[in-house]
Amino acid sequence: MITPADLQFHTPADVDHIWAETYWFGLYVPEDDLYGWVYMVFRAGTGAVMCDVEFVDSKSQFMYDARYIDIQNHIPIPERLDSFTLPNGLTFEARSPSEYRIDYVGADETEMHLDCVGIHIPYDIHDPAIDPMARDTEETRIEHSGFGTAYSSHFDLTTRVTGTVKVRGKSYDVNCLATQDHSWGPRPERGMNPMTYMNAHFPDDFVVQTIFAFDPTQPDGAQHEFKHGYTVRDGVLTGLVGGTLKVDHRGIYPELITLSVRDVNGRTDEMTATARTFNNWLPYGVCLTGHSMLDWTTSDAITGIGTLMEAYPLDHATGGRLTTDITTSGSSAF
Q1: What is the pTM for the complete model shown?
Q2: CA-CA distances (angstroms) from residue 21 to 5, 89, 183, 282, 316?
Q3: Cβ–Cβ under 8 Å, residues 195 and 212
């Protein structure tokens, strides 16, 4: 169970350089194809924070086609995790485990001023009272987390995100559902697990959130293994117990996503998606990630917006293990 104490650092006494604590916050402005995020990785053992602020609004394999990227890898770590200001212009406040405030004033007339308020309690993937897929020993929790020791502790939280952003001088109002997360544990940059993080947000606050293990060396249709997830429907948070995912790829670009999930009550939801935006993302120098804002359609024709991240750690992907067919002629390959 996540408590207010989890808004503080969880630094072990014998901390080393691989220990990490992370926050992810995303936002959507679908009418303008705008997808933005803040991602922070706190490395207490090295005294540094990686803070990544990005906006994308097109489908491209090239990071220079993003609207805005501000990745800084060696910001000094703050004393507190619940309230801080970083030298890159980002101010963060965790008001409770379900409520957060983010302000950012960056470069080239780019800003964000956002409130993120949860629509359910934090979904602790290791708490059997919340997640029916939780395991009962540390070893099995790590094995089943979907991301190895990096998800030794992890919760997801779907929030209502409201406020404003400005990207290179153009302002946007934000009012969307988006799923955020917070993790802590050993996160080595050698031997990272490939993984898939994916969600869908629909009208009436209907949400599907999933974590899948991912083996990109296998053919499409045999790459993903369900690990954790939930739905929110009519205000009720319900754990998932199974799911199937197929991503039809061109290179690492997702041309079609087909998802089926089953909750603890036996209810099944089925849906498909295509990418509205796509770009390569490097949350770590060693981990190329295919990153999309998705257009979802359920089996009963309800439409929504979500995220797909498929992580390809480069020590897994190099050495001839993968073959790709991404078109390389021109910056807008899709």
Answers
A1: 0.95
A2: 14, 20, 6, 17, 23
A3: yes
* Residue 324: inside a domain: no
Question: How many helices (H) and strands (E) are present in the chain, helices listed first?
Answer: 2, 19
d(CA 203, CA 284): 34
Quickly state the pLDDT bin for 74 (edges 50, 70, 90): very high
| Residue 8, token pair as written in the block | 């503080």
- Residue pLDDT, tens place only, 160-217: 999 999 999 999 999 999 999 999 999 999 999 999 999 999 999 999 999 999 999 9
C-beta atoms surrounding 233 within 10 Å: 17
| CB-CB contact of 116 with 180 (8 Å) | yes
| 333 within some domain | no
Residue 103 belongs to domain spanning: 21-184+191-317
Q: Please state, in angstroms and rounded to a whole number, the distance separating the CA atoms of residues 180 and 311.
A: 17
Paired sense of beta strands 236-250 and 253-263, if any: antiparallel
Residue 89 within a domain: yes
- To the nearest 10°, report the CA torsion of 73, 79, 80, 83: -70
Distance CA 187, CA 283 (A): 12
Q: Write out pLDDT tens, residues 272-299.
A: 999 999 999 999 999 999 999 999 999 9
pLDDT tier at 320 (50, 70, 90 boundaries)?
A: confident
Domain count, the chain: 1
Give the amino acid at 24: W
| C-beta of residue 186 within 8 angstroms of C-beta of residue 19 | yes
Half-sphere exposure of 125 (CA within 13 A, CB side): 33
